[in-house]
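Input.
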Amino acid sequence: MNPRGVFSRNHITEKNATMIEYQYYSDPTPHIFFPEVLPTKTYAELVFPYLEHSAKGRIGRDLYDGEPGYSKLVESPGWRDLHRMFTSESFVTWVLRIFAKDLERLGCRVNLSDAFHEPYLESRNTVHDVKGQISDRNVNALFTRFDIQVADGNYAPYVHLDRIRRVVGGVLFCADNREEGLVGGEFAFYRDLFFADDRRCFWPKLAKTFTVRHNTGVIFLNANTAFHGPRRIYALRGLRKWVYYAISSHQPTWSPCDSSRARNLAFKCKHTLEEVYRCLAPAANLL
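Output.
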């Protein structure tokens, strides 16, 4: 752990200044694309596990740190390199360094001169049930999440932001759309055509997509502009497999604006119409 902060002069060295090949983009929201996360030979050793359905998960089939089988998996060939890199202090330092100007511009509450990385296990119950603060630790105390995720054809499209305590979110794909017979299901960024800086997307417009391909990944700032989600799956013979990655604080790291009464009413009306559509759609398909 580096108590002086991830951006202290003694911590940044030439050795960890460049971790892997990446492409940085500021639009539509700050993000990094990895065209190859691991060396090809190392990635070929990675075997994705079969996951049973679990309660209180993001999508129903996932594996979190501290659960049976997790430690054995992340010490297996391929996984060991992937997990050690993305959960290391040097990687956290490197990512935050790339996003430094964006973090300040977009109002992140984490102070990079005081931030530090430390081990922390955020339980499944906490992930599912707690939206805001999870402890009394300082906002600058950061930890990582590295969750194994699987989805089938029932994976529903939805536009959202990650928990407000996440500084950075991301996906690392461990599948290929061609091999899995996947049509759709891309990871996507959206803009809100009625953006109000309140961390809610009223009218999403597709802005950028990333096809599900082996050994690629996307990491993004979980700022108020980072609306994202999976695209609709039109066909899938196999499974959509990935790692959910995050650099997180124990405290809320972003400051949304309060919604106006008119916007709150508009959201209620929208949700009502969506519920009506979901109820009527199956009946319409029978006609």
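The CA atoms of residues 54 and 69 lie 14 Å apart.
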